[in-house]
Amino acid sequence: MGKHTTMKKRHLALAAGTAATVLLSACGSSNNTTGGGAAASASGTSGGPPIAVGLLAPMTGAYAGVGTGYQQGLQVAFDQANSSGGVLGGRQLTISVVDESISDTTVSTGAMRKFASDGDKIVVGAALSQDCIASAPVAEQLGMLNISPGCGVGQLIGPNRLSKTFFSSAGNDAMLTYGLEKVLTQKFPSTKSLWTVNYDYVTGHEVSGALRKAFSSSLGAGGGEDKFVPLGASDYSSVIASLASKATGDASTQGLILTNYGSGALAFLKQAGQAGLLKNFSFIATTYMYYAAAKAFNGTSPKVWDAYVYVHPDVFQTKANTDFVAAYKTVANGALPNDWGYSGYITGLAIVQALKKTNSLDVAAINTALEGMTVNGPSGSFTVDKTTHHFLMPAVVAQIGGDSSSPEGVKLYDTQVIPGPEANSHPIGG
Amino acid sequence: MLRLIVTLIYGITAAGPLFLIASGLTLIYGVMRVLNFAHAALFMLGAYVSVQLSGGPTVSLGRFVLAAAGAGLAVGLVGLVVERLVFRPLYSRNPEATLLASFGLSLLIAGAVERFWGTEPLTQPLPSALSSSVSISTASISVYALVELGVAVVVAAALMYMLRRTRFGANAVAVAEDREMAAVMGIRARRVGAIVFVLGSALAGLAGAIVAPTVSVDTGLAPSTLIPVFAVVVMGGLGTVGGAALASLAIALVQGITTNYLPAISPYAFILLLALFLIVRPQGLLGRLQLSREA
From its phi and psi, is residue A123 left (phi > 0), alpha (psi between -120 and 50) or beta? Predict the structure, then answer.
């Protein structure tokens, strides 16, 4: 009897633990559909069943902010469309979400099958390159159109791209690196040494190599070194030790580039700042959405040059941007949009525009409508390249940093916008 | 020469946080034979709790210390609950069951953290008293890095004292050596195990609070910490506190030296070092036998 009771207790404990785990996982990551919010119900009219657009993006884990931003941006675009009568004769747009957080390619391909079995015709995502590469051909095979706000690698937008129904609404390394090198070499002509801190992966090597080449050819800046750490590393003591003993020249001649994005850049800046190292550089720069890290500093972020497609809500002084920011705050509980929210929004705008143009859910027709289409968004007008299917957005190079009196503690100090045609016409390192 | 001196100083200070995180894990394994995959998640939880208790963009030294203590206490309490509900029912089962349970627990903690604190990264401010740096010729080092090292040294000394010189330590060693025999000798093995688990978890929470001002406090913190910490525990010899301290020092120094002098291999330096140890000395620096003497 005692043994039986013990066994029962064990089973109960295991069952409780398992149930709790499953419950929390389900809460955080399962697919769920979000409607058109207040705008959808306010419209009142319906010309048929809602049209669900799939969203495959990280909603939990270290990249959850990316997926949340996409979803909220997409929601703003769909709310605007729904409140103005919907699409295809009054049908409402909704979002069906699958969590990409595990970054297992079987998850992304499985998600595509799930969207197809639900009858979805358009999928937004994935966010991570390896998932896009795996899932984009599957989406095409299943007869779906696929737009990713996160993937812009050569396999997906190059001449021999993996899927003919894939579109990229992401910034890519080439345009961002070009923007950064153009602005920084103009603003810091005294630079003689470039120090870079990078995750040890393809983007880290590509971006640091391209910037080193650009600084060397335009300014003769041959000094400095590239430091690489494992992807996801949070301890930078060995890199800081190296920089502390080597990067000891005149600050006006030294620049610092970070390609250890997100939490890596934040951890490095904290540790380097505490060691008094950041004053050794005339500029600190990165090429990927520094805003979230700057916000986490609570008004104390160092000033960082960031290159991406939005960077800060104050960059674009247009009515479309003002309206977007106001609407985004409504769906994001008062939070301001960043690059992820903006990317989700312009993706949503393009989908709405294509659906209105074709007035059908025929994937081939939507595909054709998107090719060469002009999208009007917060950053003005840009086109979708007919051949590569890449959204030719402007590149934004801006310096942002901490300021406790600014919204979310992040202030825009300086900015330069590189027009889309120019930003997108330079191969990386070219 | 300056380069070498700076590299060595940074290497020694970098060993501090590494040991702090690993100490609880090795303590729990040494006594309970539980390889707790959720340890990194408990460390992450400690970082979040300390940010919560610090309560804003600036923090005084006193509040920072209280927040760190509170994080240790809170995570220790979580350890108490977890030991009772998750691990205790599994002690008599094979190690795979415990390992799987600890993995599930790490997912549970990560999910709970996201529910409570959201998905955006947070930062823990440093008190102004600890925000300065010390000059070494033209280079400089953060005062807080020295504080981290100091805390690690105190924790290591306290653990060794506890295991070698106290009655509780003797009981823990007995339980580590032979749980059933210890029970026959009148030692309340379950109670000892629970206390060790709480202590190990509290150390994870304290480590989270101590490391928090130097990192991005987000749910990526646990996975990014897990591998280096397990490397420390394996290299030190599973379950040896002294071994973990030596391994932390070895890894941090090798990392610093390769970054400065052999940059091509620096991203993989600790993995190479771990592989070398597994080939040459699989029992680790001090090995399991040392545990019983040390403890």
Answer: beta
Give me the helix-helix angle, B167-177 and B189-211, nearest 10°. Answer: 110
From the list A10, A274, A299, the residue facing B214 with the nearest CB is: A274
B113 touching chain A per CB within 8 A? no
Please indicate if any CB of chain A lies within 8 Å of the CB of B155.
no
- Residue A429: how many CB atoms within 10 A of its CB? 17
Interface check A27 vs B, CB under 8 A: yes
Contact at CB, B221 and A235, closer than 8 angstroms: no
Bond into A275 cis (ω within 30): no
Terminus-to-terminus CA distance in chain A, angstroms?
77
Separation CA A231–CA A62 (nearest Å): 13
Residue A310 and residue A336 in contact, taking contact as beta carbons nearer than 8 Å: no
- What residues of chain B lie within 8 A of the CB of A24, using their CB? 107-108, 111-112, 115
Instruction: Scan residues 179-198 of B and list those with Cβ closer than 8 Å to A.
Output: none
Q: Cβ of A49: how many Cβ atoms within 10 Å? A: 10
Of the candidates A17, A62, A230, the beta carbon closest to that of B104 is on A17
Q: How many Cα atoms are found within 13 Å in the side-chain-facing hemisphere of A123?
A: 35
| Nearest-CA distance A295 → chain B (Å) | 9
3-state SS string for A22-85: HHHHHHHHCCEEECCHHHHHHHCCCCCCCEEEEEEECCCCCCHHHHHHHHHHHHHHHHHHHHCC
Quote the DSSP letter at residue B217.
B
CB contact, 8 Å: B128 with chain A? Answer: no
What distance in Å separates residue B36's CA from the closest CA in chain A? 15
**Average of per-residue pLDDT values in chain B:** 91
Condensed to tens digits (0 to 9), the pLDDT of residues B24-64 reads 999 999 888 888 999 999 999 999 999 999 988 889 999 99
A93-99 vs A32-34, strand pairing mode: antiparallel
Token look-up 């809170």 returns B74
What's residue B44's pLDDT?
A: 97
Q: Does B244 touch chain A (CB under 8 A)?
A: no
Please identify every stretch of chain A with a pLDDT value under 70, giving residue numbers as ranges: 1-46, 102-103, 428-430
Distance CA B99, CA B86 (A): 11
Instruction: Specify the pTM.
Output: 0.87
N-to-C CA span, chain B: 40
What pLDDT shows up at residue A319?
96
CA distance B202 to B220: 20
Q: How far apart are CA A342 and CA A235, in angstroms?
A: 31
Contacts of B170 (CB under 8 A, 6+ apart): none
Q: What pLDDT score does A14 carry?
A: 43
| CB of A174 less than 8 A from some CB of B | no
Cα distances from A35 to residues A78, A336, A356, in angstroms, run 9, 21, 19
Which chain B residues are Cβ-neighbours of A59 within 8 angstroms? Answer: 119
Nearest to A281 by CA among A245, A254, A321, A257: A254
- Inter-chain touch B140–A297, beta carbons under 8 Å: no
Contact assessment for residue B136 and residue B2, using Cβ atoms and an 8 Å cutoff: yes
Asked casually if ipTM beats, i.e. exceeds, 0.90, the reply is: no
How distant is the Cα of A22 from the closest Cα of chain B, in angstroms? 8
